[in-house]
Fold these 3 entries.
Entry 1:
Amino acid sequence: MSMIRKNLLQLVFSGSFMKRWNDKLRPMEFFEVDKQAHKMITAWVLYSLNLDRARTASEQDALALEVIEGGIFEYLYRLVITDIKPPIFYQIRANPSHYTQLTDWVLEQLEPRLQALGGPFWERFTNACRHPDADSPGRRILEAAHLYASQWEFSLIQGVNPWDEELEEIELNFKRSLAGYQDLHGVKELIGEGMTPLKSFVHQCGQLRFQKRWSQTPRIPETSVLGHMFVVACFAYFFSLAVQACPRQRANNYFAGLFHDLPELLTRDIISPVKRSVRKIGDLIKEYEEQEVERRVFNLLEQGGYYGISNRLKYFLGLGLSSEFAVSVIQDRVPLEITRRALQEQFNRDEDDPKDGELLKVCDSLAAFIEAYTAMRNGIKSEQLQQAVFRIRQDFNQVDLGNGLHIGSLLADFD
């Protein structure tokens, strides 16, 4: 029986306020939720290229969940220790006694919110927090992805801080640390000279942090397309746990959430009223998005020989199906659209490679709802925000995802 409530969703969203590189001159504000999104996109790429480290399909699924949950665990921990600068945190972690004290306090802060996800999740979270240095494949993928995403941010501020004495040491540390992960397939391509197809793809994804959502509506906080994708991915994973999705479906729902707005890199964030305002304009926009993604993303990856990554992205984005929010499985290597009832009753099995698009649509709308709701709570009362909150309440008030996960009850928490 699901006990997911408002405070868990708001915890995930709170990374939209959390600033990074706050002691440096910045060409723009950097937020934790954007960095986490870029990190997890990079982690998915490295996971996809290192599947040979897991021999069977079930081991590959286990590795995917280790990467996903490890990323979520690190993010939640980081949200609580927000005021501790990384160099200080690493010193604390190097002292077992001090780190244990800090971790006990973090767990105390998070337990009321995370217990809703069940005992097994809480046990995995506490174990990961208490043993952060485990040298498993999933942890190494996450650490390489973390370093790469942080270095990518660093490259944006490096040129505007020429007098900062710390920068040279920070740059050398990134290079030295990333060099230790070159045994992972894909790392050399990401950190080498020149723009390889793989690096270009990850770079394009990172640029979604520059693209603000609700671009014509003032909001606090402003959220980017990149950060929104990460929030939706986390919601999708938590909801997948709540409805008892099989391991493959949990991973698919998370990664589909993480990439669901990738086409907006090419078309910008076109708000729903525009898509709905003219007959069939939504279909025209979708057709244009698919053409541009094919040209600038899939062709790029395939020219570099990354057919597996390209094909998987196409499945996550629902290409060939009615939309990215289609409920689907893979049958004879071909995506097949099914009903959600069929998914729950027949196809919630790893071997069917299921993806719950309807659950993703709910998570996407809930993330938009929290963006609008939070801006209004922070004093911005625009008509567009009020309409969005009203419309989402109306559209999802009767939606029940199963196992006690009633969206109307969840929305009622937001008074």
Entry 2:
Amino acid sequence: MTIAEQVALLSEGTISVLPREELIKKIERKGKLTIKLGVDPTAPDLHLGHAVVLSKLRQFQDFGHHIIFLLGTFTTRIGDPTGKSKTRPTLSDEQIENNAKTYFEQVQKILDPQKLTIRYNSEWMDILSSKDFVTLCSKVTLAQMITREDFAKRLKENQPIALHEILYPLIQGYDSVELKADVEIGGTDQTFNLLMGRYLQEQYNQEPQVVITLPLLEGLDGVQKMSKSLNNYIGLSERAENAYGKILSISDELMWRYYNVLLYMSENEIVIHKEAIEHGNEHPLVLKKQLAYKIVERFWSQQEATDAQIQFETLFQKRDFSQAQEIVLPLKDYTIVALIKNIEEALSLSQIRRLISEGAVSVNEKKKNDPFEIISLSDNSLDTILRIGKHRIFRIKR
């Protein structure tokens, strides 16, 4: 493959490559580039939104480039202000360390660990002298910082901005100086921070990095970007059948977005499928099942995708609940809220109450509207069947 063909493939699915000509020249001159991705371990789970960027890194790996997966063990203490209307709460060092441990295991679903370097930005930030830090701050003006969209918006709305938040893009940019990155990859919401790395490298007399941005993946609600804090995510560490079911729960319109961003289906192909549905030649559920299968196959395994599809068809089309996930609980009596919380710990109490009020919860095929109704689990061999939403069914035993 020629360099031009390689860059064309690497550019597929991206929003921007800034500047594209420099990427071609870098590969021509160096052959093997250093590609950087920075992730703050703010939570223990990576999700399909992260998979968009990780998949692009895998392409770079396959072309022989050097990948640095940078864990923001220092920047996590600050909290990335991107898209936030208020200052984020800080995490303890213990929380950050525990979250970071899970990340390497999860990225191996997509990246080749033998061709991957893990770094931590606390390596250099914890030992940076106050003199060097002031020198770093002198490279950028306050006017540059407050042009960032979310800062400008908060200022306009008279929302406070903590000084350490303004320093976040500066520190992320300095990571690129320390790593001498040739390319940095991130979501479109990271554009300002990525360009800051390019700018600071020039200030430190380094060759500036190429910035590659990728689309943000909307969460299950189809509105906000996929996020653990919003509980609209599909975690890479989830059971494959849970991921399969969650994908089937998305709207028909959001399905096309997932096809495009996660499976690289072209806009022309999407138009063809939409027209086929309009003329009755294809059914949205069939296409959604294909989407769920292909995503699970890609980020879990072919066997798990097959098993998840068989389980779905058994549960929802043949209504054989013996194939539902089995949960064993110790007590006999639970309120509906407590029952769900014991099974879906990631759901907040307000989210559980909302599901109940929307009629999305049933026990033994009877909808439940009272969050405080007592459910008594059977002492005999009969299971209690709990359904949450359209595609989550559990067999509960004592």
Entry 3:
Amino acid sequence: MGGRLQGKIAIITGAAQGMGAEHARVFVAEGAQVMLTDLQEAAGAALAAELGASARFMRHDISSADDWDAVIAATRAAFGPANVLLNNAGMYFIGPVDEADPERVRKLLEVNIYGTWLGISRIAPVMREAGGGSIINLSSLAGNHGIPWHAIYGASKWAVRGLTKSAAVDLGPSGIRVNAILPGAIAETGMAPPGGLDEAQLAAIPLRREGSKDEVSRLAVFLASDDSAYITGSDHVIDGGRGLW
């Protein structure tokens, strides 16, 4: 019996570890054929081997147009034209807004904003050829609220939300949907304090817990699947209610 993503051909960036690796596992379990991409070659290749015939891995710098073209071509050769893109890869660091290193800031913005735009721009012709598709961009709760020490990262994730909405308008007539996922505190992703949140941080979350990687991946499955066929240009917040106040 096929899963919710039977017939879907997906590219998942930043798939060698953390949330990206969980996305890859869940997508394959739901029937998708998946090209995993990352800069971490050993971990990415090992995960693709673990997932079997429905997965491949390629080294991929998402800020390189040539790398995007190579990944899209390799996906076509392995499985066919991609009809799902999960823009998961990104850089993360935090600190006071006036103390960030300029080159580090430049690189984060290049990866998180320019890299996401590159993926959208390169995949759109392929999805048009395929008759449509779903693009899912990872934003963040920091892209919806001002959070201390998150000015640079947050700026990039606000930009991803804006890019998502405008791309949804531009690409909608071609049957291409574009949505954003905005996670809050998700355990074991490198974006929460070591050892988890303290009591005060948990008390600020109405559900009183961190989210799990699997919960984010299940949301991504919904947005990649035909179950969300009439949803585009939307922010999908998954934060246990933290952003409500």
